[in-house]
Design goal:
Shape: elongated
Strand content: 35-45%
Helix content: 10-25%
Largest sheet: 6 strands, antiparallel
Length: 100
Amino acid sequence: MGLRFQRRIKLFPGLHMNLSRSGVGLSIGGRGAHIGITARGQRYASVGLPGTGVSWREYERKPALRRCELCQPGHAHIPAPLAAVLVLAGVLLLVLFGGR
C-alpha cells in the first residue's frame, strides 16, 4: 500500500483547490456531492455521506481512439478549421505566385 497525500483548501464557498502529490485540482460543490477535475486532468463526480468517510467517485469515460483509413505511422489528424485555413492559404499562394 502506498503513501497518499491530499489537502483541500477552500477558495470560496463551494469552490476548493485540491493539492496532492500529482499536482493541483479543482472541485465545485458542497458536503455530500461535488464535481471536479484532478491534477492529471480527469473529470469526476463524487457523492458521499458527510462525516462517515464513505463516498463514491465516478470518473468521466474517455472515448476510444478513432481509427481511419489514413491512420498509419506518422499520420496526424488535423482539426477541420485548421485544415480549411491551410487549404485557403495554399490556394492564395497559388493564385499570387503560381503564374510566375
